[in-house]
């Protein structure tokens, strides 16, 4: 990875919780099911065995991905941001476009991004354009639908 994997403490906790759930709960259950199904004889038409092996591969792949993301993670607490007048990681930002449509976005780690909930990944085009901006600044953003200009209306961070 050429860029740090910034993540909030809550985002890191969510990755850790998923890893723990898969490793400690779901994987042992699937292993038990697969070993039981393997003991039943013919594996070629044994649905429990075939599905269990497939699910086990999916779990192992996800565990590997989660492990890599957690190792590369740089946990940043937005509440401890020194410069609260500018947009940095963890900021909740209100922007207005050319048509005076306002949007509120929170800049979070790429692993915890959810556009529907207003959580924008740190490396998304709009987040990259807004980095370092203050209230009243205008920023141009190249989006798939074309170029848009946004004005920063408000910048906020969580309380410590």
UniProtKB/TrEMBL annotation:
HAMAP family according to UniProt: GreA_GreB, GreB
Native source organism of the sequence: Sphingomonas lenta
Source domain of life: Bacteria
Domain Transcription elongation factor GreA/GreB C-terminal: 85-157
Record has Methyltransferase as a keyword: no
Pfam families: GreA_GreB, GreA_GreB_N
Role: Necessary for efficient RNA polymerase transcription elongation past template-encoded arresting sites. The arresting sites in DNA have the property of trapping a certain fraction of elongating RNA polymerases that pass through, resulting in locked ternary complexes. Cleavage of the nascent transcript by cleavage factors such as GreA or GreB allows the resumption of elongation from the new 3'terminus. GreB releases sequences of up to 9 nucleotides in length.
SUPFAM superfamilies: FKBP-like, GreA transcript cleavage protein, N-terminal domain
Protein's name according to its UniProt entry: Transcription elongation factor GreB
Family membership: Belongs to the GreA/GreB family. GreB subfamily.
GO biological processes: DNA-templated transcription elongation; regulation of DNA-templated transcription elongation
UniProt keyword terms in alphabetical order: DNA-binding, Elongation factor, Protein biosynthesis, Transcription, Transcription regulation
GO molecular function per UniProt: DNA binding; RNA polymerase binding; translation elongation factor activity
InterPro entries: GreA/GreB_C_sf, Tscrpt_elong_fac_GreA/B, Tscrpt_elong_fac_GreA/B_C, Tscrpt_elong_fac_GreA/B_fam, Tscrpt_elong_fac_GreA/B_N, Tscrpt_elong_fac_GreA/B_N_sf, Tscrpt_elong_fac_GreB
Residues of the Transcription elongation factor GreA/GreB N-terminal domain: 5-75
């Amino acid at each position: 990875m050429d860029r740090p994997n910034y993540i909030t403490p809550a985002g890191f906790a969510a990755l850790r919780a998923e890893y723990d759930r898969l490793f400690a709960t779901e994987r042992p259950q699937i292993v038990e099911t697969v070993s039981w199904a393997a003991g039943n004889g013919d594996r070629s038409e044994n649905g429990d065995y075939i599905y269990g092996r497939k699910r086990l591969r999916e779990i192992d792949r996800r565990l590997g991905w989660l492990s890599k993301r957690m190792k590369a993670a740089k946990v940043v607490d937005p509440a401890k941001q020194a410069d609260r007048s500018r947009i940095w990681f963890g900021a909740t930002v209100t922007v207005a476009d050319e048509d005076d449509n306002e949007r509120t976005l929170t800049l979070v780690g790429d692993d915890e991004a959810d556009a529907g909930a207003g959580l924008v990944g740190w490396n998304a085009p709009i987040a990259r354009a807004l980095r370092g901006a203050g209230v009243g600044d205008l920023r141009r953003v190249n989006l798939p639908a074309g170029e848009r200009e946004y004005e920063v209306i408000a910048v906020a961070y969580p309380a410590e």
